[in-house]
Each structure stands twice: as structure tokens, then as C-alpha cells.
Amino acid sequence: MVHRTARIGLRLTRAQRQRCFGLLRSAGDVWACVLEINAWRRRRGDQPAASYQELCRLLSASGPGTFGELDSSGARSVLRRYCDAWFSAAARRKAGHAEVRFPRRRRALMPIRWYHGTFTITGRQLRLPAARGCLPLHVRLDRLVPYPAGTVRSVTLLFDAGRLGIDVTAELPVTTYPHHARPDPDRVAGVDLGIIHPYAAAGLDDGTALLVSGRALRAEHRLHLADTKGRRRATAARAPKPGQRGSRRWRKTRRRARLAETRHRRRTRQALHEATTTLIGWAVDKRIGTLTVGDPRGVLNQNAGRRHNLRLRQWQIGRTLQILQDKAALAGIRVHLVDERGTSSTCPACGKKISKPRGRVMTCQHCQFAGHRDVAAAFTIATRTPGGATTTPAQPCSGVVTHRRAGTHLPGRGSARRDPRRRPPRSAAEGSLGRRRPAPPPVTGRRSPPVVGSRSPTPVDEDPQHDRSQPGQRWWTPH
Prior knowledge:
Helix 1 (14-44) packs across helix 3 (72-94), helix 2 packs antiparallel against helix 3 (72-94) and helix 5 (248-285) packs across helix 7. The chain is built from 8 helices and 17 strands. The protein has a 7-stranded antiparallel sheet with strand order 2-6-7-1-5-4-3. By secondary structure, the protein is α+β, with helices and mostly antiparallel strands. It is globular, with a radius of gyration of 32 Å. Helices cover 33% and strands 20% of the residues. The protein has helices at residues 14-44, 52-62, 72-94, 215-235, 248-285, 306-315, 317-331, 373-382; strands at 2-11, 112-115, 120-122, 125-128, 137-141, 152-160, 163-172, 184-193, 199-203, 209-213, 288-295, 334-339, 361-363, 370-372, 401-405, 451-452, 456-459.
């Protein structure tokens, strides 16, 4: 069994929106109350209240109605989140990471989770419990839940990037296949993660490979960076000074910037999901049951310069690995992480060290091998095991290399790139209406001749320059 989560928007009235924000604020009060209790204990030299059972006893001692409409199950979910964060920080500090801090920051809006049995989903209607004496909260989802009703285990109310949403978590069984199409654990494929190609996979059995291009994803990062810089330059003049409260106009500007940043994150996350779905589909078609993935997180600690550090920050290695492990577990495919050091400078045919290529083509001066650099690295990764030993590979790059592209939904450099729903501006081919000018005064005493332009009453059959007696003299009177 695996757990999957889908985020669904809400269709709310003003009263329902106010109640949702009230619940989130009450959850933030629970979080702040726990932080304050542990601050008091820390000043007195006592042990902190970190266990879930002790925090639940403190919650029951506070009495009903202390935290508004928030019920006890929702408040306990906040306590569970605090316990997980506290014990995670304690384990990392014990492992030697002294820079890790315990949770001490207050949060105005805290996500609330309700578990199975406390909520009800009927079609697109969701019923959330409330405190004793308060009516339950009924909200409408903007789409149907993508999981069967019997598999939903929890729902989480949260506010992210200016939007209220519900995270629905379901417990799903691993995909079952016919006997002839079941993934074989003995069939191994190596996966090389990268920036130019998010995934490069190669199988050892038949020598086939897969290349997923991230050109659209990199273009999205580059265009979003250019938009952000232009927006900051345009709004720098009206930005408030440090310590000064911003105006209503500045708050609207900041809200638009947050919406643009959130839209960028949604686009990149969707592109990563598309790339991972392509990889898992290729593995299922090849009946590959084991993916050996090179772990590139060691390069994050190196200072490679301002530009390359930005590329590494935009890479999102942790999220890529999490999405890959999620989808592989649902498909019944095992994932092993191995060290990828030296895979781009090792010949997959003879195994000898070669100079790292500057381009995308790797050539070996020992055995005259030539092939794609990322595919060759994937073949080398496929021969490694989690313990560090290597296996004998088959003939590398002897099959067909399949090319796919991730992020086909991403908008390119267009007039309406920032918001696809916005109407594009008038094109230059249609012409411009120009600035509105007053009509020329009518000519009295004779028939009005046709005018030339919008600023000159000169007749068409007259030359406006023929009656000049001095250089620069105008024949007509400017207005």
C-alpha cells in the first residue's frame, strides 16, 4: 500500500471563507500556545513538553471553546505536527547537525488535518467538524476527488500562496499487472539526474535508453527570472522603506508578485510530474523492476559560481527524488540510490577513466566508444549497487534511444505569458488607433476638401511647401 495526496481547490462563499480562516487562525493559536509553554519551561530549566501524550493532556486541561471553532481532532493534528518537527530536529542535532533549530517560530495560519471518520465526502461536498456547539463546516470542492471514496484517509485544510485548498490523502494498493507484463526485479535500469535532461535512463538487458529533455523547464526558470527582475525594477520606486508600513497599492503589488511566484512553482512541479510519469511508463513497458538512481546531492555543498549555484537551486533535487520514489512505489518498482561520482568521466564500454566531455557527446580514446554523455552515465550507474560493488554490463547503447520532452504545457515567450487567461494585446499588423485629436475646423464659404492627416486642413491638390518666401516658414497655421 502507498499513500498519495492530491490538492483540490475550494468554491467558497464569503461566510465559508471567513470560517476557514478562523479555523486556520485557531490552529495557529494552538501552535503559539505550545511554543509559549515550552518557552516558560526553558526559562525555568524544566524539560520541554514534546511528547504527543503530554501535549494532548495539556489540550484537554484547557477546556472546550478555548480555540474558537477548532475541534479537538483538528487541534491534535497541530500537536502531532509539532511533535514530529521537535523529534526530527532532536535526531538531526544528535547526528551532529548543530545548525538545526527546534521549532520556535509562530505561524499565523496553521494547516489542519482531519483523519478518517471525522469528515464526510459526498461527491464534491466536504463536511468538516467543528467545536462543540458550532455547526459543521460544509464546503464545495472545485473538482471530484481523484481517489475512490473508501481509500481516503485524511483531509488537510491549508492556505498556500493566496489560495485556500484541501489536501486529500488516500491509501492506494500497488498496481497489479498480468503475469506476462509484470515488472521483473532482475531487470535493472540506471537513471542519471540532470539539469539539461531531468532523467536519462538506460537498461542493461536490451541496451535501450530514454532521454527526457528539460528545455521547456529551463526556459520557464529563465523567463520567470526575467519577469521577476522587471517587476522589481518597475516597483522599486514605490517600495516602502524598512520599518515603514506599505500602502494599499503596495500590498496589491506584493500580492501579484506572490501569485506569479506561486504560478511558477505550480508549473515547474507539474513539469517534474510529467517527466517522472514518462520515466515510469518507459520502465513499465520494458518490464524493468529496479531503478538504480545516481544521487547527485553531494554537489550542493560546492560553490560553483553565481550562475551555476542558481541552476543548482532551481534544480529541486530533493523534490525530484521524492516524486520518483512515490510514482515508482505505486507502480511496484524498486528504487536504489547509489553514488554517481565519476559516472560522467567513465567509459561504459571499457570502464576506463576519460576526460569529462564539455559537450553532450562522450568519446573514449581507449575503445573508440562514442555516445550521449547522459546515456553513458546512466549505463555506468546501472552497473553499481547500493553496497558499492559493480556488475558486468551488457553492450552499452546498443538499442534505441527514446527522446521525450517534459513541460509541454508551459507557455513560452508570449504576450500573455504571465497569465494565459489574459487577452493578448493588439498586434502591430492591425495598426494603432493612436492618440485622439480634435477634428479640424470646417472651411466656410466653399466646399470642404478632403483633409490630409488629422492635424492639417491642407487640401490634397495644394502643395503645403510652394508658398514659402523664407526658409522654415509654414504656409499653414499650426494649432
